[in-house]
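debug: dumping io for the single-chain case to check the tokenizer round-trip. Nothing else runs in this session.
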Amino acid sequence: MKKGDVWRVRIPPSPGHAQTGERPAIIIQEDGFITSLPTVLIVPFTSTLAAARFGGTLIVQPDKQNGLTLPSVALVFQVRALDKRNCLTKLGALDHQTLDQVFDVLDRLTGR
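debug: decoded output
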């Protein structure tokens, strides 16, 4: 498990508008913390392209490297910590340019 990997994850149910269920997600945590913590920071995906209307999102096209099978919206505004036991299967990894775009969106969201 490394920063930039795309994993199929299981996000436990929670109240409100947060994503739940099994879905692809991007690992955004620095590698050194991945090995030392029981949780990992993720950005969930949705295949509902209408979600791109929200600020804090990024459309990612599927390719052989990232392992996505459909155009997907990275819901950067829904970044969260997830217990690593809920990371089910590695699907692939984002290319460096797309991962940089994810972090650009995160920087805008946090005012960095």
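debug: round-trip ok. The chain has one domain: 5-110.
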